[in-house]
Specification:
Layout lengths: L8 H10 L1 H15 L7 H13 L4 H18 L4 H18 L17 E6 L6 H14 L4 E5 L5 H14 L3 E2 L7 H14 L4 E5 L7 H15 L9 E7 L4 H13 L4 E5 L9 H9 L3 E5 L7 E3 L2 H8 L4
Parallel strand pairs: 1-4, 1-5, 2-3, 2-4, 5-6, 6-7
Antiparallel strand pairs: 7-8
Helix pairs in contact: 2-3, 3-4, 4-5, 4-11, 5-12, 6-7, 8-9, 10-11
Amino acid sequence: MGIFGFFSKEKKESLDQGLQKSSENIFSKLSKAVVGKSKVDEEILDELEEILITSDVGVDTTIKVIRRIEERVAKDKYVTTDELDKILKEEIIGLLEENNTQDLLDFDIPEDKKPYVIMVVGVNGVGKTTTIGKLANLFKSAGKNVVLGAADTFRAAAVDQLILWGERVGVPVISHGMNTDPASVAFDAVKKGIESKADVVIIDTAGRLHTKVNLMNELGKIKRVMQKFVADAPHEILLVLDGSTGQNAFIQAKEFTKVTEITSLAITKLDGTAKGGVVIGISDQFKIPVKYIGVGEKMTDLQLFNRKEFVDSLFTKK
């Protein structure tokens, strides 16, 4: 079994609660669309299209989903409104599967990648540093040794916040303070990880630099210094996005994929929004696997993403 174990009942309840606003938004509208109708027809599909778009699934992804449902309705000749939510879930799960988003019931660090180096990127305000703290807690709870690197040195609050998270979780934080060289912090964090035989090193990076060129250069420099110790570092570049910003999260993902290779996504703050559909749209449009979702403020409310459980919570009437 992987380091995070199975999808527990408690996690499912937390997920249901975290996605409650999004789920209620979808089903209140869907219920109105199908009232008095027994068969899925063109009018209902038009309503469904609008519901998905206003839930921030995105226009392109919504069109894909609607086309798939239209094909099934045409093939089966008669699809009842009671079957619509089941078909909807099946098609979205299939879409997420095609986009390399895996069911992370079990997740482990590759044996030949130690320490496993994760570089975390994202604009200020998305919950990047908090996500790192919660991620460190996930790993530590699984018995892994973790080192954090406070390389977001352009913002004093980011450095101080990560140090506090380190104390809270009980993991070491490498920090040189504010306005210091981020690459030197990353260098020392990876060095510490090797010396202490850490399993995971997580590097925080600047939330915003003046231009894309600056950001690209800074991330490139951080990569180069880490590779002096670990040749293939970073093993993962995790982009943190704020799910409550809806379409703005799409824009952020687009901008970051232009300046560096993003290998995984963490989408936060889903508990405070009715825009949970953004997870589906971003995964589909950027073909980057969603790995973590934030569904609450508690330390344990950062969860490994499981597409089946997510879609079930989002599209099941409570």
